[in-house]
Amino acid sequence: MTKNKPQLKEIGVISHITSTNKLIVPSNKTPRIGSLLVNKKNKPIGKISDIFGSTKKPYLSIKTSNKYKKANPGETVYLSPQNKKRRKNNGRNSKKKKTIR
Length: 101
What we know:
The chain has no helices and seven strands. The protein is mostly beta strands.
């Protein structure tokens, strides 16, 4: 029996590293700020700290720290399947209010 691996969504390729150790990735998708990015071996690289540039081709600024794997320019990054998805909201006041009779 084989174990189903979650599919990694490709975000882009690291173009360069800034002087403050942030990775810059041009992307064709716009993930949420705070999303965890991983390499092809599903090892964490960092979290998205900023999104800038045009809406069609945004750039992502990825904040790294010592607990994340070192990444090099030219490496492909993926969106981690562990990121929490948004909860569906069914309207302005989706919670039912108790009525006093």
